[in-house]
Amino acid sequence: MAESRRGTPTWPLYIGGFLGPFGGQLVGTMLPEVAQDLNVTIEVASIGLTAYLIPFAALMLVSGTIAERLGRRTSVRAAYALYVVASLVCAFAPSFELFVVGRIVQGIANAFTTPVLVGALADAVRPERLGRSLGMYGSLQAFGQAMAPLAGGLAAAINWRGGFVVVAVVAAVLFFLPPRDAADQSGVARGTFRSLANRRLALACLVAGLAYLTTTGVILLVALYGRVEFGLSPEMAGLAVAAFGTAGLLTGRRTGGLIDRLGLFAVGIVSHVLLGLACLVIGLTAGLPVAVGVTIMVLAVALGGMSGTATRSVAQNLAVTSAPTNRSGASSVMLACQFGGSALAPLVWVPLFYGWSTFGSLMLTGVPAALSGLVLATVWFVRRTARPAS
């Protein structure tokens, strides 16, 4: 979190990166309390997750490019102001319908912060340190995503509405710390949709969507799995999931550095395979004694956090280097696919978890990440095979 090339601190960018997934996943472990307080079933309450993610993912197809045209500073400040209002609506909603409206508006606002912050960070750091910086950003995103169940569990134990007041306060502070606008480049058109039509960005979108279908599934199912299989309290289930973000936070900068040294594809292939493997190990803890099962589960969650953060950094690096004149736009399109996978996760994995089997649902959760690793391996092999002929 050092000074940027333009002499401005980058730490507000990292904190903003934490806030997006934290606010999106905050509802996970408080679903029973939200359902009871607002008089709906848990299955209906889970719409609060999807209500945030669908508009978030859909708008990010265009939000980054729009922000580049309007200016990063103006766009991000307006988004944070809207996020504050939406969070307070969720905190004080008297009905589930109004709660869902607040979640939708939260997702809309976040669509104009997360991708723009990635673009601003890519412009702020030196190229040779891009992997490390994006690794740190990705680790804080993973930390936010995985700390959300813990915070949600703690809030549920007291009053779930307080969690939304906290995120409103953080967004209010960040309102006063927006990123700078992109540097002017004479003769170069910025914020064009045409610059996004390239194969590198398409690859980033594909692997990001598949990996996040797994990542969100791990975080969501482990919170439920810990409560059902081992009888953990909401707070303890959230603490177990927090291992995901903690491992990502501790290793993100180093795995990003590995991308700088070893290359995107080498790190990407290994990290996606490890993420899929972590899901399998978690499922295999079913039936074990509580102490042993929880210990293995937490270690596997930590492995998923480390590898999941690396997969995030790989996708972000592919995206922001695919369109140098529209980094925010490229980042937003990739993130639209990434969080599209995240939005699908509750709809796919929760019914399988409750209606089929705990082991089977967790095992299947790892398949998209493994498939993403296979895609990267195929592209890497094709490129190496074609290189001598070029």
UniProtKB/TrEMBL annotation:
Signal peptide: none annotated. It comes from Ammonicoccus fulvus. It is a multi-pass membrane protein. Keywords: Cell membrane, Membrane, Transmembrane, Transmembrane helix. Pfam families: MFS_1. This is MFS transporter. Coiled coil: none annotated. It comes from the Bacteria. It is found in: Cell membrane. The keyword Membrane applies. The keyword Transport does not apply. Residues 9-387 form the Major facilitator superfamily (MFS) profile domain. The chain crosses the membrane at residues 12-32, 44-67, 79-101, 164-180, 201-225, 231-250, 262-284, 290-311, 332-356, 362-382. InterPro entries: MFS, MFS_dom, MFS_Efflux_Transporters, MFS_trans_sf, Sugar_transporter_CS.
